[in-house]
Amino acid sequence: MGIASAIVLYMVLWFLTFLIVIPIRIQTQGDLNKIVPGTHAGSPEHHNLKKKAVITTAVAAALWGIIGGGIIMGVVSVRDIDMFDRMGPGGSMWYSESNKE
């Protein structure tokens, strides 16, 4: 796995984790009975985004280590997701096409 793919993997994991962590323990205006006129009762009053970003960073780093380690050690490869055998038996994805008789 190259540097660029490792960074992209971490960024995808970070954003997916962040979208999961955002709604956890949120306090809305309706929950606190402090509804500002002109806003929805479901609008957040206390969102704690800084704390959630730190938690997201830690969880994403752990997931990145597990998934990245599995890719580097060869537990998962591109050939594992080749459901239609388009890559062929050789090292190149055009192996079967180049050896036609």
Distance between the termini: 35 Å
Strand content: under 5%
> How many DSSP E strands?
2
Basic shape = elongated
Order of helices and strands: HEHEHH
InterPro entries: DUF1467 (IPR009935)
Keywords: Membrane, Transmembrane, Transmembrane helix
Transmembrane segments: 7-26, 53-78
Pfam families: DUF1467 (PF07330)
Detailed description of the structure:
- With 101 residues, the protein is mostly helical.
- It has one domain.
- The protein is built from 4 helices and 2 strands.
- The chain has helices at residues 3-21, 29-32, 49-73, 95-98, and strands spanning 27-28, 44-46.
- Strands 1-2 form a two-stranded antiparallel sheet.
- It starts with a helix and ends with a helix.
- The chain crosses the membrane at residues 7-26, 53-78.
Write the layout of secondary structure elements.
Elements: H1 3-21, E1 27-28, H2 29-32, E2 44-46, H3 49-73, H4 95-98
Antiparallel strand pairs: 1-2
Helix pairs in contact: 1-3
What key phrases describe this protein's structure?
101 residues; mainly alpha; two-stranded antiparallel ribbon; 4 helices; 2 strands; 51% helix; 5% strand
Compact overview of the structure:
The chain is mainly α.
